[in-house]
Fold each of these.
Amino acid sequence: MIGICKKAGAAVSGTDMICEALRRGAEAPAVVIISEDASKNTEKRLTDKCKFYGTEAIKVPVSSSELGDALGKSGTVAAVGITDAGLAEAVKKKINL
């Protein structure tokens, strides 16, 4: 499902890019997905930003390499933000929330 979000142009990956998208407001993620092995610093930074901007942050039982694979990236991705509200709801349903 996250791959579909990427193809639709509704996924922002990486901590810095997600934080910047949250600051912009108009293109802010509707939900931020954080991998289980994200560093404590990354997790805190993202959850604090999400709380400040009123965006839901979800830690999922998926490794950063699996998240990177879902996005079609070679390497690891600690977090991904889904910018489309409808797709965000579909992702949340897939992870049973």
Amino acid sequence: MTRQQTNRIAAIALTTVAYVVVVPIILVILYVIVNGFPAFSWEFLTQPPRSGMREGGIMPALVGTVVLTLGTAIASFPLAIAAAIYLAEYAGDNRLTRLVRMAIINLAGVPSIVYGLFGLGMFVLFLQFGTSILAGSLTLGLMTMPVVISTAEEAILSVPRQFRTVSLSLGATKWQTIRHQVLPQALPGIITGIILGLGRAAGETAPILFTVAAFYLPKLPHSIFDQTMALPYHLYVISTQVPGMPLSVQYGTALVLLLLVLSLTLIATLVRTQMRRRREW
């Protein structure tokens, strides 16, 4: 078999695998859109549920999801990026650092239900935050932090060493070099990690089940110590706990959640593309 034939077989195999992965995802998205679009309206987005959640809209759940996503970003991303900077730029390559990195990778694979139980024990009961937005945001923040740390560290390490060498040789301090040279170049990769974390936080059900989510709460929260509805848990409730629920409402809720996550991904992609164009390597 010639080299050209081997390359052709490899290209065909990779193309086939790509279609096998992508086509089912597209079909699922189209199925949700087709079944959920009849319920999609301005009233559906801006009205609270009524008549046992069989009518009305999903406004409290939508607002709750947005609030929890913002709370997750505030609670976890500054600490995660700081930890990534320390591991990439300050920590030495020793056994302790390798153990820390291994622990971060393992924490990224821990099931979300475990984070939910930890959040219940730590934030709801021990710290007495109660079932609240604060407890839910901190729990989601802990869950997303390992992913953000890993991706941010890889982005920082991918910046060529020459940027650091030239900056230090011109008299800049290590922190000035990191702030003005390394972080701007690593920002596209850091944003990727942040959006991955936000997408996971917006779509999780188990962590908020124990820490913040309310079964039915048509009023909007007024403080971080209030409960709130959230789209993932609301979708679970109307799909399994409410008899006679119209399918259009279920798929409409799933469509809104899907559009929310896709919007985050689209915004991140656009921002990352613009920043990559400005990158100097």
Amino acid sequence: MGENHLAALPTALCGVILLMAALSQLILQRRIVANEGKQSAIKRAIGHDRKEKASVLCYVAAVGAAFRLPWLAQLLCVTVGLMWLVPDRRIEKALQQADA
């Protein structure tokens, strides 16, 4: 956000961009599952999409909070980033089990 550290509009726009990325990931996962089938290894690996759905909810909350509490909006975006910093090994593990 450059020189506009806690400005509302840049914070909201950043949240919108991150929200669109999270939504595209969610849509991509659902299309892959629809193509592979509900009993596929990828569906078992993804499970209930808790992490993905939590990301989308945090980004929606961040966009909403950006105009009143920009620091909270930025904190929510950083929290999602930290949440995804830990690698998600569900897919790799499920695909290895399917090959065995």
Amino acid sequence: MSSPPKIDDVRAATAVKLKGRTKLKLGELPTNGHSLFEDKKTAKASLDDDATVIDTLQDALYAEQKHALLVVLQGIDTAGKDGTLKSVFKFTSPLGVRVHPFGRPTDLELAHDYLWRAHAAMPRKGHIGVFNRSHYEDVLVVKVRKLAPPQAIEQRYEQINQFEKHLHENGTRILKLMLHVSRKEQGVRLRERLEVPQKRWKFNPSDLEDRELWDQYEAAYATMLERCSTTWAPWHIVPADSRSRRDAIAARLVRGALEDLNPQYPDPGYRPEQFEID
């Protein structure tokens, strides 16, 4: 069994480049993760180790109450947002993790600006928040399905950047993961949803409509990644064809984000010798 890659190496391999980058072509990027984890056994061992450390760091984050971590999970249908979430935080206390799934906007949400529902769901200090889909739907499905005027969508990229900068400057670290699955693997997983009774509830006929729009979604994702990867809220492209490698890569990145925050248990100001418990 080989050694897991260093966190900095995972960051370098998955980060969307901010300087001197050429036009992003998602179809040319790897989706298997073999360059980071040669074998699944190493990936699974790395995941277990990182998931354990994530629990410890989250406990300190909750006690310190100074910062929050927002993990954004985006990816086309079947990319594995649910599976990644379950694996990365499998040892973490639910006390300090809040998951918010973004679906079709409600009437109340539509009565506000498009970022209102995202801001309302932000994690409190001391917590990890996970967005399963996110405010980026407003430059993805809304763009591909033409649910808003092109001019309005064009404005949103910089609006989102400034929104995330505001969050960053006020104590929320943002880690954005785009789960990159191939069209071939998506086909395998869609068939699996139909054939496996326990997974059939996840199948939605509209997923096949979106599959027909693969090229348009790929272009929308590429624009999103190019326009909204910033120094304060970078995007990472996580290969997602291999579930074990996908989860291990995501866990390395989440652990790294928490280690950067370096949460510390606060000193309450009293010492054990001051008290006597009978």
